[in-house]
Write a structure and sequence with these properties.
Elements lengths: L1 E5 L4 H12 L6 E5 L8 E4 L2 E4 L3 H6 L4 E4 L3 H13 L3 E4 L15 H4 L9 E3 L3 H17 L1 E10 L6 H12 L29 H14 L5 E8 L6 E9 L5 H9 L4 E3 L11 H4 L5 E8 L6 E8 L3 H17 L4
Parallel strand pairs: 1-2, 1-5, 5-6, 6-7, 8-9, 11-12
Antiparallel strand pairs: 3-4, 8-10, 10-13, 12-13
Helix pairs in contact: 1-10, 5-7, 5-10
Protein backbone atom coordinates (compact mmCIF):
# COMPACT_ATOMS: atom_id res chain seq x y z
CA UNK A 1 0.00 0.00 0.00
CA UNK A 2 1.62 3.21 -1.26
CA UNK A 3 0.27 6.40 0.36
CA UNK A 4 1.05 9.98 -0.62
CA UNK A 5 0.39 12.89 1.73
CA UNK A 6 0.28 16.15 -0.23
CA UNK A 7 0.97 19.13 2.01
CA UNK A 8 2.85 16.88 4.41
CA UNK A 9 4.69 19.73 6.14
CA UNK A 10 1.55 21.76 6.94
CA UNK A 11 -0.64 21.72 10.05
CA UNK A 12 -3.22 19.27 8.64
CA UNK A 13 -0.66 17.27 6.64
CA UNK A 14 1.37 16.68 9.80
CA UNK A 15 -1.82 15.59 11.57
CA UNK A 16 -2.61 13.20 8.69
CA UNK A 17 0.75 11.49 9.21
CA UNK A 18 0.05 11.22 12.93
CA UNK A 19 -3.43 9.76 12.39
CA UNK A 20 -2.20 7.28 9.76
CA UNK A 21 0.32 6.01 12.29
CA UNK A 22 -2.06 5.95 15.27
CA UNK A 23 -4.78 4.10 13.37
CA UNK A 24 -2.24 1.66 11.92
CA UNK A 25 -3.27 2.29 8.35
CA UNK A 26 -1.17 -0.19 6.33
CA UNK A 27 1.41 2.15 4.80
CA UNK A 28 4.07 0.08 3.04
CA UNK A 29 5.51 3.10 1.25
CA UNK A 30 5.01 6.72 2.33
CA UNK A 31 5.39 9.49 -0.24
CA UNK A 32 5.38 12.92 1.43
CA UNK A 33 4.74 15.82 -0.94
CA UNK A 34 4.94 19.57 -0.35
CA UNK A 35 5.62 22.86 -2.11
CA UNK A 36 8.78 23.48 -4.13
CA UNK A 37 10.49 25.18 -1.21
CA UNK A 38 10.02 22.09 0.97
CA UNK A 39 11.31 19.50 -1.49
CA UNK A 40 14.27 17.65 0.03
CA UNK A 41 13.19 18.33 3.61
CA UNK A 42 12.34 15.39 5.84
CA UNK A 43 9.19 14.43 7.71
CA UNK A 44 8.90 11.82 10.44
CA UNK A 45 6.56 8.84 10.24
CA UNK A 46 6.62 5.96 12.71
CA UNK A 47 10.11 6.90 13.86
CA UNK A 48 11.60 7.05 10.39
CA UNK A 49 12.58 10.00 8.22
CA UNK A 50 11.07 10.39 4.75
CA UNK A 51 12.20 12.90 2.14
CA UNK A 52 9.65 15.32 0.69
CA UNK A 53 9.26 14.98 -3.08
CA UNK A 54 7.63 16.98 -5.87
CA UNK A 55 4.13 16.50 -7.25
CA UNK A 56 5.49 14.97 -10.46
CA UNK A 57 7.70 12.52 -8.56
CA UNK A 58 4.74 11.53 -6.40
CA UNK A 59 2.60 10.73 -9.45
CA UNK A 60 5.47 8.72 -10.92
CA UNK A 61 5.61 6.67 -7.71
CA UNK A 62 2.00 5.55 -8.38
CA UNK A 63 0.53 5.66 -4.86
CA UNK A 64 -2.78 3.89 -4.35
CA UNK A 65 -4.15 6.91 -2.51
CA UNK A 66 -3.13 10.55 -2.07
CA UNK A 67 -4.36 12.55 0.91
CA UNK A 68 -4.38 16.19 -0.17
CA UNK A 69 -4.15 19.13 2.23
CA UNK A 70 -2.39 21.77 0.20
CA UNK A 71 -5.09 24.36 -0.54
CA UNK A 72 -7.75 24.77 -3.19
CA UNK A 73 -5.63 26.08 -6.06
CA UNK A 74 -3.12 23.23 -5.68
CA UNK A 75 -5.96 20.70 -5.60
CA UNK A 76 -7.59 22.16 -8.70
CA UNK A 77 -4.31 21.91 -10.59
CA UNK A 78 -2.96 18.59 -9.35
CA UNK A 79 -5.81 16.37 -8.18
CA UNK A 80 -6.96 15.69 -11.77
CA UNK A 81 -3.39 14.75 -12.74
CA UNK A 82 -3.21 12.24 -9.89
CA UNK A 83 -6.66 10.92 -10.82
CA UNK A 84 -5.68 10.53 -14.48
CA UNK A 85 -2.79 8.35 -13.32
CA UNK A 86 -5.29 6.07 -11.55
CA UNK A 87 -4.55 7.44 -8.06
CA UNK A 88 -7.45 7.98 -5.66
CA UNK A 89 -7.35 11.51 -4.24
CA UNK A 90 -8.99 12.40 -0.92
CA UNK A 91 -8.93 16.19 -0.90
CA UNK A 92 -9.23 18.35 2.21
CA UNK A 93 -9.66 21.69 0.42
CA UNK A 94 -12.92 23.30 -0.70
CA UNK A 95 -12.01 22.86 -4.38
CA UNK A 96 -14.23 19.87 -5.19
CA UNK A 97 -16.81 19.84 -2.40
CA UNK A 98 -19.74 21.24 -4.32
CA UNK A 99 -18.83 19.66 -7.66
CA UNK A 100 -21.90 17.50 -8.40
CA UNK A 101 -19.66 14.85 -9.97
CA UNK A 102 -17.49 14.47 -6.84
CA UNK A 103 -18.62 12.68 -3.66
CA UNK A 104 -18.49 14.72 -0.45
CA UNK A 105 -18.04 12.16 2.29
CA UNK A 106 -18.31 11.75 6.04
CA UNK A 107 -17.94 7.97 6.55
CA UNK A 108 -20.45 7.72 9.42
CA UNK A 109 -23.05 9.43 7.21
CA UNK A 110 -22.64 8.54 3.53
CA UNK A 111 -19.62 6.31 2.80
CA UNK A 112 -21.96 3.97 0.95
CA UNK A 113 -22.10 6.38 -2.01
CA UNK A 114 -18.43 5.68 -2.82
CA UNK A 115 -17.49 3.55 -5.82
CA UNK A 116 -14.27 2.31 -7.37
CA UNK A 117 -14.75 4.90 -10.13
CA UNK A 118 -14.46 7.83 -7.70
CA UNK A 119 -10.93 9.12 -8.12
CA UNK A 120 -11.40 12.54 -6.49
CA UNK A 121 -13.24 12.43 -3.17
CA UNK A 122 -13.89 15.63 -1.23
CA UNK A 123 -13.38 15.93 2.52
CA UNK A 124 -15.98 18.38 3.90
CA UNK A 125 -15.42 21.54 5.88
CA UNK A 126 -14.38 20.85 9.49
CA UNK A 127 -17.38 22.54 11.09
CA UNK A 128 -19.78 20.70 8.76
CA UNK A 129 -18.24 17.29 9.47
CA UNK A 130 -18.80 17.34 13.21
CA UNK A 131 -22.33 18.69 12.88
CA UNK A 132 -23.57 16.10 10.36
CA UNK A 133 -22.13 13.20 12.39
CA UNK A 134 -24.55 14.24 15.14
CA UNK A 135 -27.40 15.24 12.81
CA UNK A 136 -27.56 12.12 10.65
CA UNK A 137 -28.92 9.63 13.24
CA UNK A 138 -31.49 12.22 14.36
CA UNK A 139 -32.53 12.89 10.76
CA UNK A 140 -33.04 9.17 10.18
CA UNK A 141 -35.26 8.93 13.26
CA UNK A 142 -37.17 12.23 13.33
CA UNK A 143 -36.53 13.95 9.94
CA UNK A 144 -34.87 17.37 10.31
CA UNK A 145 -36.70 20.41 8.97
CA UNK A 146 -34.38 23.24 10.03
CA UNK A 147 -30.98 23.77 11.67
CA UNK A 148 -29.73 26.99 13.26
CA UNK A 149 -26.02 26.76 14.10
CA UNK A 150 -23.54 29.18 15.69
CA UNK A 151 -19.92 28.06 15.77
CA UNK A 152 -17.03 28.86 18.11
CA UNK A 153 -14.03 27.84 16.06
CA UNK A 154 -10.42 27.23 17.06
CA UNK A 155 -7.56 29.28 15.65
CA UNK A 156 -6.02 26.01 14.42
CA UNK A 157 -8.68 26.05 11.70
CA UNK A 158 -6.85 28.99 10.12
CA UNK A 159 -3.41 27.38 10.38
CA UNK A 160 0.00 27.88 11.96
CA UNK A 161 0.07 31.61 11.26
CA UNK A 162 -3.08 32.09 13.39
CA UNK A 163 -1.73 29.92 16.20
CA UNK A 164 1.44 32.02 16.18
CA UNK A 165 -0.61 35.23 16.27
CA UNK A 166 -2.54 34.04 19.30
CA UNK A 167 0.55 33.06 21.29
CA UNK A 168 2.46 36.19 20.23
CA UNK A 169 -0.40 38.33 21.52
CA UNK A 170 -0.58 36.32 24.71
CA UNK A 171 3.16 36.87 25.21
CA UNK A 172 3.01 40.56 24.29
CA UNK A 173 5.21 40.05 21.21
CA UNK A 174 4.91 41.62 17.77
CA UNK A 175 4.45 39.21 14.89
CA UNK A 176 2.74 38.36 11.64
CA UNK A 177 -1.05 38.68 11.73
CA UNK A 178 -3.34 35.98 10.35
CA UNK A 179 -6.40 38.09 11.20
CA UNK A 180 -7.13 41.77 10.70
CA UNK A 181 -7.83 42.13 14.42
CA UNK A 182 -6.40 40.82 17.65
CA UNK A 183 -7.69 37.30 18.42
CA UNK A 184 -6.58 36.88 22.05
CA UNK A 185 -9.28 38.04 24.47
CA UNK A 186 -11.55 38.57 21.47
CA UNK A 187 -14.09 36.87 19.19
CA UNK A 188 -14.19 37.48 15.44
CA UNK A 189 -17.62 37.01 13.83
CA UNK A 190 -16.06 36.43 10.42
CA UNK A 191 -14.56 33.22 9.03
CA UNK A 192 -13.50 33.51 5.38
CA UNK A 193 -14.72 36.32 3.09
CA UNK A 194 -18.16 37.93 3.05
CA UNK A 195 -20.49 37.08 0.18
CA UNK A 196 -23.13 39.27 -1.47
CA UNK A 197 -25.88 37.83 0.76
CA UNK A 198 -24.09 39.07 3.91
CA UNK A 199 -23.03 35.58 5.00
CA UNK A 200 -19.42 34.46 5.00
CA UNK A 201 -18.09 31.72 2.76
CA UNK A 202 -17.66 29.47 5.82
CA UNK A 203 -21.31 29.93 6.76
CA UNK A 204 -22.54 29.04 3.28
CA UNK A 205 -20.23 26.01 3.23
CA UNK A 206 -22.12 24.69 6.25
CA UNK A 207 -25.45 25.34 4.53
CA UNK A 208 -24.61 23.75 1.20
CA UNK A 209 -22.37 20.90 2.36
CA UNK A 210 -24.88 19.70 4.96
CA UNK A 211 -27.53 19.23 2.28
CA UNK A 212 -25.14 17.43 -0.06
CA UNK A 213 -23.68 15.06 2.56
CA UNK A 214 -27.06 14.19 4.03
CA UNK A 215 -28.61 13.88 0.58
CA UNK A 216 -31.58 16.10 1.39
CA UNK A 217 -32.03 19.57 -0.10
CA UNK A 218 -35.16 20.12 1.98
CA UNK A 219 -33.14 20.62 5.20
CA UNK A 220 -32.97 24.34 5.90
CA UNK A 221 -29.70 25.47 7.48
CA UNK A 222 -28.63 28.92 8.67
CA UNK A 223 -25.22 29.56 10.22
CA UNK A 224 -23.13 32.15 12.03
CA UNK A 225 -19.45 31.24 12.31
CA UNK A 226 -17.13 32.81 14.87
CA UNK A 227 -13.37 32.50 15.50
CA UNK A 228 -12.37 32.38 19.17
CA UNK A 229 -8.96 32.17 20.92
CA UNK A 230 -8.97 28.46 21.75
CA UNK A 231 -7.04 25.36 20.74
CA UNK A 232 -8.21 21.77 20.62
CA UNK A 233 -11.39 21.93 18.58
CA UNK A 234 -14.47 23.68 17.28
CA UNK A 235 -17.67 24.09 19.30
CA UNK A 236 -21.17 24.53 17.91
CA UNK A 237 -24.49 25.59 19.40
CA UNK A 238 -27.11 23.81 17.28
CA UNK A 239 -30.89 24.25 17.31
CA UNK A 240 -32.72 21.50 15.39
CA UNK A 241 -36.38 21.43 14.38
CA UNK A 242 -37.84 18.04 13.44
CA UNK A 243 -40.86 16.98 11.40
CA UNK A 244 -41.98 14.54 14.08
CA UNK A 245 -42.23 14.80 17.85
CA UNK A 246 -39.48 13.23 19.97
CA UNK A 247 -38.97 11.85 23.44
CA UNK A 248 -35.87 13.46 24.95
CA UNK A 249 -34.63 10.27 26.61
CA UNK A 250 -35.03 8.38 23.35
CA UNK A 251 -33.22 11.15 21.44
CA UNK A 252 -30.29 10.89 23.85
CA UNK A 253 -30.24 7.13 23.31
CA UNK A 254 -30.22 7.58 19.52
CA UNK A 255 -27.13 9.80 19.87
CA UNK A 256 -25.49 7.43 22.36
CA UNK A 257 -25.78 4.58 19.86
CA UNK A 258 -24.68 6.64 16.84
CA UNK A 259 -21.30 5.82 15.25
CA UNK A 260 -18.59 8.36 16.03
CA UNK A 261 -20.63 10.15 18.72
CA UNK A 262 -19.92 10.35 22.45
CA UNK A 263 -22.63 11.90 24.62
CA UNK A 264 -21.27 14.00 27.50
CA UNK A 265 -24.40 15.38 29.12
CA UNK A 266 -24.76 15.47 32.89
CA UNK A 267 -25.67 18.98 34.12
CA UNK A 268 -25.66 17.82 37.76
CA UNK A 269 -21.97 17.02 37.43
CA UNK A 270 -21.26 19.99 35.14
CA UNK A 271 -20.33 17.50 32.42
CA UNK A 272 -20.48 18.80 28.86
CA UNK A 273 -18.20 18.78 25.79
CA UNK A 274 -15.27 21.20 25.64
CA UNK A 275 -12.36 21.67 23.21
CA UNK A 276 -10.02 20.92 26.12
CA UNK A 277 -11.39 17.37 26.25
CA UNK A 278 -11.95 16.87 22.52
CA UNK A 279 -8.31 17.66 21.72
CA UNK A 280 -6.54 14.71 20.01
CA UNK A 281 -9.75 12.66 19.99
CA UNK A 282 -11.45 11.31 16.86
CA UNK A 283 -15.03 11.37 18.10
CA UNK A 284 -17.74 14.02 18.00
CA UNK A 285 -18.91 14.98 21.51
CA UNK A 286 -22.51 16.05 22.16
CA UNK A 287 -23.99 17.60 25.29
CA UNK A 288 -26.32 20.30 26.69
CA UNK A 289 -29.16 18.32 25.09
CA UNK A 290 -32.43 20.03 25.99
CA UNK A 291 -35.81 20.74 24.50
CA UNK A 292 -36.36 24.18 22.96
CA UNK A 293 -39.23 25.42 25.10
CA UNK A 294 -40.19 28.16 22.61
CA UNK A 295 -40.96 25.90 19.67
CA UNK A 296 -42.49 22.46 19.10
CA UNK A 297 -40.39 19.46 17.99
CA UNK A 298 -37.12 21.35 18.51
CA UNK A 299 -33.98 20.51 20.48
CA UNK A 300 -30.80 22.39 21.44
CA UNK A 301 -27.38 20.71 21.50
CA UNK A 302 -23.71 21.58 21.98
CA UNK A 303 -21.35 19.77 19.60
CA UNK A 304 -17.54 19.74 19.95
CA UNK A 305 -14.81 17.97 17.97
CA UNK A 306 -11.09 18.29 17.24
CA UNK A 307 -11.10 20.17 13.93
CA UNK A 308 -7.64 18.97 12.87
CA UNK A 309 -8.57 15.33 13.52
CA UNK A 310 -12.23 14.46 12.81
CA UNK A 311 -12.64 17.81 11.08
CA UNK A 312 -9.82 17.09 8.63
CA UNK A 313 -7.15 14.39 8.98
CA UNK A 314 -9.13 11.61 10.65
CA UNK A 315 -12.10 11.96 8.30
CA UNK A 316 -9.75 11.65 5.31
CA UNK A 317 -8.05 8.58 6.76
CA UNK A 318 -11.44 7.03 7.58
CA UNK A 319 -12.42 7.45 3.92
CA UNK A 320 -9.20 5.68 2.93
CA UNK A 321 -9.95 2.91 5.45
CA UNK A 322 -13.41 2.43 3.93
CA UNK A 323 -11.99 2.25 0.40
CA UNK A 324 -9.36 -0.27 1.51
CA UNK A 325 -11.85 -2.44 3.39
CA UNK A 326 -14.11 -2.53 0.34
CA UNK A 327 -11.25 -3.17 -2.12
CA UNK A 328 -11.81 0.07 -4.03
CA UNK A 329 -8.16 0.88 -4.75
Amino acid sequence: MRVAVVGATGLVGTKMLQVLAERNFPVDELIPVASERSIGKEVQFKGKAFTVVSMADAIAAKPHVALFSAGGSTSLEWAPKFAEAGITVIDNSSAWRMDPAKPLVVPEVNASILTRADKIIANPNCSTIQMVVALQPLHQRYRIRRVVVSTYQSVTGTGKKAVDQLFNERAGKEGEMAYKYRIDLNALPQIDVFLVNGYTKEEMKMVNETKKIMGDDSIRVTATTVRIPVMGGHSESVNIEFETEFDLAELRQVLTEAPGVIVQDDPAQQLYPMPLWAHEKDEVFVGRIRRDETQARTVNMWIVSDNLRKGAATNAVQIAEYLLANEMF
